[in-house]
Amino acid sequence: MRRARRGGLRRLCKSHGEDRSTGSVQLETLEVIQSLGPLGERLLTLPRTTVSNLQSRVESLKTWQSKLQRGVLPTGSEQGGIGEGKSMDGSLAWPEEPFQGQLLQALAELDMASLTRRFPKLTNTLLANMMDVVEEFEASYVESDDDDEAEEEEVQDDDQPPSPSSIDVAQDSGLEPAEGGDGEEITTVVENAELAEDLLAEFRKEWEPIAEALDTSEQFFEDLGDMVQEQFSHDIDTLGTQNSVWKHTGWKEIKELSRKLERLPQLRKLVRDLGRGSRGRGPKRLANAEEYMSGNPEGLITSNLVIEETAGVFRSGEIMNMLPSEASLLAAGRGNGILKQLWHSKRMERSLLSYERVGWMDDEDSNVLERMEIRPSGVQGPIILCLDTSASMAGDREKVAKALVLECVRGAKQQQRKCYLIAFSGKDEVKELELSSDVDSMKGLLEFLGGGFDGGTDINEPISRSISLLRDESEEWSNADILIVTDSEIPALRKDLREEIHKEVENRLLQIHGLVVGPRRTSNLTDLCTEPLHIFNDWDVFKFDDAY
């Protein structure tokens, strides 16, 4: 027995130049390789790739790619011999056994086919990582004497196809030699099976956290296609699984907190309702119409008291909005008394054809109708979240705070608005993070969720930074609301900051909300907020173990 040599590409090129009879077939194969890009080029460099098995390996790679993108695993080569290139039953010829069977089992246990169907950009990254493992397997592959003879025969005469191996794939290290078999061959198969098992154990270890994180992200964020496309590269040299955001332990925290949020409608409603002057904004969409009805819940209605757009033509007595045809009738009436009387008659009866000039008014009593109309989608304004991370917030209060942060991320994505986190504790202990679902922001969020709360409490710095955001030249945050989350044990705000924040309330109609996650109610927080305090009382949620 010996170890396989790393001369596959050299032997392949030499044989390709000498083989004239199969030139056209090889040319077609090379064209397919080019169409596969880096994956096809990588296949050429594998230690056990030869002229005789190149075509079947390329076909197998195409099968892997196609099947995974459709969300299914390929059929294994149950009867294929080692080095044949194509199995006797027409199934996959690459990777070779015993590696292939163990690989399919590992992918099935990880449910990778389901992930590649939901995230097609993941397919090539998975295949590239598979090739890394296959290369190690083929480089360390233990060959039998029959394999040596077959390789020498191939190099000497390419017109003669290599003889298939006479052994069956051994999955169990306790196999005994079959009648007429060779003990050395069985030992070789067992060694290769153990090699494959060791390599695929590392493969599982690599992909298990990624698979779990992707599943968690899809359940919570619904659509992270752009993030997956950015994180997983098609370039083999920059394989996305190394130092990946998907390996972060913070995903376990997201999984636990997202289950808590399912039973915390109070937090979801708080985030959804934040955003002043927001209901009449955003791109238009088809939705149920609303009309004014006194005593009903507040909604969004159209009104001619707010002139924003022309909605159509209607009959009215408004001179300023009448159509040019009505104005021409009035002009003609100067020389014709009948036409003048006709125009005045139409005005008195409010039947002048007029432009309907309307706008959207929110916070008005409204009734939802069955009739559909094109309405603003209600994209809400930004949120500045000032989060107390002092030592007094540890325990269940910390979980509430982190759950709210997570809901802000999800709400910002669903409602297409911006959210900025200012986490504060003692003096000069402030961390800032714009919450979104892109890769860089997710890394910061995962770090935050995986950390603990500690330190004192200083409200001055987060309020100062909030004012700076509101006054930023980009005006991205000029219409933001501020939400302060604390256990209410905060000191009084400095006098100069009280004056500055009061100016913002007057000039920008700034709303400052407060969420109390503790039993105490201090006047310092009440004096700072412009809206009634939100009190968190759903502590029973944290008595349940959501692990499943």
From TrEMBL:
Biased composition (Basic residues): 1-14
Cellular component GO terms, alphabetical: cytosol
Residue ranges constituting the VWFA domain according to the UniProt record: 380-546
Gene3D superfamilies, per the entry: von Willebrand factor, type A domain
Taxonomy, superkingdom: Eukaryota
SUPFAM superfamilies per record: vWA-like
Compositionally biased region (Acidic residues): 141-160
UniProt-listed InterPro entries: VWF_A (IPR002035), vWFA_dom_sf (IPR036465)
One Pfam family matching this protein: VWA_2
Region (Disordered) location: 1-20, 141-185
Name recorded for this polypeptide: VWFA domain-containing protein
